[in-house]
Write a structure and sequence with these properties.
With 218 residues, the protein is an alpha+beta fold. Among the domains are: 47 residues, no CATH class; 89 residues, TolA/TonB C-terminal domain. 29% of the residues lie in helices and 16% in strands. It contains four helices and seven strands; from the N terminus they run H-H-E-H-E-E-H-E-E-E-E. It is a single-pass membrane protein. Pfam families: TonB_C (PF03544).
Length: 218
């Protein structure tokens, strides 16, 4: 900085000195009566003198300050895992039994109930009472008795759901019409039956076949 101030002072002194010389020349010209051209020439020369002040040298840039030091972080401390003692299973307690208990009795399930019996079925009507009493010697036709006619009448009865005879058919004649007629007459009036039953146990119409043997009592 002192060197720069010295250079600036020298330049100022030179400039002042030149100005003084110019003023002396101008005074001299006025006094001596020099021509205007000489004055103009001097002025022109003065105009050509360009006094420039020297610029001070650029100061060197200061280096940037160093970055602040980062604190060194200590490494994380990892604690070791806790030491777990091994689990020791308790020993099983063995108990001695003098005699082994009897095995449990098997549970027997009761048998299933028997299925219900099927409904009663009756293919043919069943007679009620003694069929021999439906036609006997007391029913012998008087004319056939006098003529001592005998024979066997075979018949087929139609029995309705009420157990009564609804029809009588002669399937085998005794050879005498009056004996066959007496047989059907007495059978229709006296015969009673338990009617036939179908698959559902309901009473239904059935058929009954038999024979009447006509003999003259001794």
């Amino acid at each position: 900085m002192a060197y720069a101030d010295q250079e600036m002072s020298s330049s100022k002194i030179v400039s002042i000195f030149l100005v003084v010389i110019i003023h002396l020349l101008l005074g001299y010209a006025l006094v001596t009566g020099l021509a205007y051209s000489a004055v103009k020439k001097v002025a022109t020369q003065l105009d050509m003198i360009d006094i420039q002040e020297e610029e001070p040298p650029e100061e060197p840039e200061e280096p940037p300050p160093p970055p602040p030091e980062k604190p060194i972080e200590p490494p994380p401390v990892v604690s070791p895992p806790p030491i777990v003692a091994p689990v020791v299973a308790p020993r099983p307690v063995i108990r001695t039994v003098p005699t082994a208990p009897p095995p449990p009795r098997p549970v027997v399930a009761p048998p299933p109930p028997p299925p219900p019996p099927p409904p009663p079925q009756r293919a043919t009507p069943e007679p009620r009472g003694n069929p021999g009493s439906w036609a006997n010697a007391n029913d012998y036709p008087s004319r056939a008795l006098r003529e001592e006619r005998e024979g066997t009448t075979r018949f087929r009865l139609t029995v309705n759901a009420d157990g009564r005879v609804s029809d009588c058919q002669i399937t085998g004649s005794s050879g005498h019409a009056d004996l066959d007629e007496a047989a059907c007459k007495n059978l229709t009036r006296r015969a009673r039956f338990r009617p036939s039953l179908d698959a559902n146990g309901n009473a239904t119409t059935g058929y009954y076949s038999n024979a009447v043997r006509w003999e003259i009592p001794k």
